[in-house]
């Protein structure tokens, strides 16, 4: 991060901070804890479905709130105020998971949902401030750097938690795995809180919209005028459609990897180790995606990332049918490595590509729409994978639905490419 200024470093560091929640609560440890401890009396398909439904409900809530919150946040000094509210919600609910009683799956899933709501809501304003802290020519590098360092920032508390959960009870029999798992939730909350401090100190809102009357009324008027004049932002809105579909598949694969791995017979320790290695793979590949974007352009690298996900889904469909846990484990390792090469790059470049398209003074408003697409997409994916898997008792049926989402996303992204070429030739 030597070429970055203090604002850029502080903005990047927030990805380092909140990735503890991504690894420990959203993706790895809490889903296992939920299935094994809080929902221990449920069958595997039902507990997997509940996690999927919780992710979908939260996505719906944040999608409904995003446009209005984003538009309000474009007023002077408002982005960090909204950021703070959601940040506190996420940190406190994450810590609260440590105190849920065994078998109380309802309380656990509610706090889990609130933590994701806080995480997702804060990201609306965090993402939109990419425009405030750097220039267009540096956006790809700053965005991919944030994702890259986020993987390392997620790994460190995850490794600490993994060691506590897997090793501590061996040396101190009086300390249970359950207790150490709960400690990991406190570690996630503390890590997230402490490393967000530089963001609060150094990151400032540079671009904003002045309001003269009632800010809420003006916010709705601005949203109306944005859609009324949508032709001015045609390429931007087509990109949002592309993003809506392909990010659905990306996020679903990330969120549902652990439940699916458990369903096909992988052990807890194997899944934890796989997810840990994926983070180390994702770190350099996020930076590589940023380097290739500078050399070849952002869109071609996005196309490459989508191609990688087509391969991932095709292989994943047949994964449950492989004979023996050993072969399934080997293929799951391969799929995980492929995900590690692509997930950070495609997400970070989508963010920076979109940031270059939006009007700077309306960045939070347009990132509100960006989050609408991401969150509404995240409603479909987990619900399809979890719901169809539960209905048919066959996880492959849910996984296969992701192919349609990636195809539509690819076609829409090609449309954006043609539109920009026409504009350049005009």
From TrEMBL:
Transmembrane spans: 12-34, 50-70, 82-101, 107-126, 146-165, 185-203, 235-258, 270-289, 301-323, 329-346, 367-385, 397-418
Subcellular location: Endomembrane system
Coiled coil: none
Matches recorded under PROSITE patterns: MFS
Protein topology in the membrane: Multi-pass membrane protein
InterPro entries to which the protein is assigned, alphabetical: Atg22-like, ATG22/LtaA_families, MFS_dom, MFS_trans_sf
Gene3D superfamilies with a match to the protein in the record: MFS general substrate transporter like domains
Domain Major facilitator superfamily (MFS) profile: 235-426
Keyword Plastid: no
ATP-binding recorded as keyword: no
Keyword vocabulary terms for this entry: Membrane, Transmembrane, Transmembrane helix, Transport
Classification via Pfam families: ATG22
Listed name of the protein: MFS transporter
Source organism per UniProt: Rarispira pelagica
